[in-house]
Amino acid sequence: MAEKKFSVLVTRKIPQSGLELLRPSCELEVYPEDRPIPRQELLRKIAKVDGLLCLLSDIIDREVLDAAPRLKVLSNYAVGYNNIDVEYATRKGVVVTNTPGVLTDATADLAWALLLATARRVVEGDRLVRQGKFRGWGPMLLLGHDLKGKTLGIVGAGRIGTAVAERSVGWKMRVLYYSRRPNEFLEKELGARKVPLEELLAEADFVSLHVPLTPETHHLINGAALRKMKPTAILINTARGAVVDEPALVQALKEKRLAGAGLDVYENEPQVHPELLKLDNVVLLPHIGSATVETRDEMARIAARNLLAVLEGRKPEFPVNPQVFPTR
Ligand code: DGY
Predict the structure, then answer these.
(1) Where do you find CATH 3.40.50.720 in the chain?
(2) Residues marked as catalytic
(3) From the alpha carbon of 103, which atom of ligand 1 is closest?
(4) What is the pLDDT of residues 16-63, one digit of tens each?
């Protein structure tokens, strides 16, 4: 049998498709519990590994990186990497990788699931039926909002934002987008218009967030931004919780300055603001944007390939800090 050359820790069970790629050449440890690896355990185990395959719920900060003298690669099983101190990893010569592209469609689909569920009060309806409160068709029962011809505001027109916009064609929506760079595809194919954030917030009936979490986007949707939105508007967040100031959102929803919100992500995951739990006009999901069998299988393969490439001295498919690589 070939010699296992590399010592690798996987912080939680991921699909076999990825683990199978690692097994032949790695001495593999997979944290066995179905919960995030406790911090102290991570600090102890990382001291001995060449590669870490980690999740968006693992905080990889200076303390963790300083505890990892052998570490060459941090392969994040996610497209977002705000859980990793990339700057410090770069200084330490550790390559950081992610899994972009593969989860675009799954996440865009979930944004639409949230949008439709919130606009048409799907979850409220389900609750009503289960509680035995359905007394027959009613002319005023659970009236929601139409989508056709409404304005969709896309905040962050990268891969996922673009895929969400593309899906609006069936509803003949007008698309506005806010982005650092113009998106030629959106403009040519959908007639979308790039506008300042203030304009998008003031005009959109549905605002869907697709920016990465960075110091610049932290609380991008704060109290002032929410005050610019229409009282009939719905906010959808499948990006990162801290892009929205959660207490300010609760306030806006309670005061009916916003019609509703569909959220897959939260500021302090897995905690959810307790007031959100009490509101009927929000749909709350447990961060399942990329949670399809096909997508998670492919994410596992990509994360494994990224990790192996670095350990074998090759350039990974998706480096976040490619500047590290040539210097190693
Ligand atoms: C990501 O990959 O960043 C997603 O949030 C996972 O669902």
Answers:
(1) 6-102+293-327, 104-284
(2) 240, 269, 287
(3) 2
(4) 999 999 999 999 999 999 999 999 999 999 999 999 999 999 999 999
